Amino acid sequence: MSRLIFVLNGPNLNLLGKRQPAIYGHETLADVEAGCRKLASGHGLDLRFHQSNREYELIDWIHEARDVAAGIAINPGAFTHTSIAILDALNTFEGPVLEVHISNVHKREHFRHHSYVSLRADGVIAGFGVQGYELAVERLAWLIGKAA
Ligand code: DQA
Questions:
Q1: Residue 104 DSSP symbol
Q2: Beta carbon of 12 within 6 Å of any ligand 1 atom
Q3: How high does pLDDT run on average in the chain?
Q4: Taking the complete model, does pTM exceed 0.70, yes or no?
């Protein structure tokens, strides 16, 4: 059984720490990656951490995960609300999928209330700040351990 998890990030998350800090906080994506890596290694998990502003790259990483990964945590950014293609890709993945949002999307504009990805996600974390990523890694570790 694979001990590899993917943490995927969509558009504009490369600017984390600089982008609307009142909403997304001051920590950078590098800080998030470091936190996830520490937690994952504590659980004996390998981790691939990626960010892209391009929809097709996220889809390609999901396809790659099909062959090698036990679980995916994904913050699709604005693609959450628009991308049937990312939903279709996630539907080809057999392991657990967790959707992460730094902000509480339900407290924000109406267009953020709908998520295509939620139609596939086994769990959704929103509004816990960047700590949501660590909660997602914890949950993936638990789900993968349970399935082993
Ligand atoms: C986000 C919420 C989305 O609505 C937004 O487009 C993002 C970030 C979040 O992490 O809170 O880019 O996914």
A1: -
A2: yes
A3: 97
A4: yes
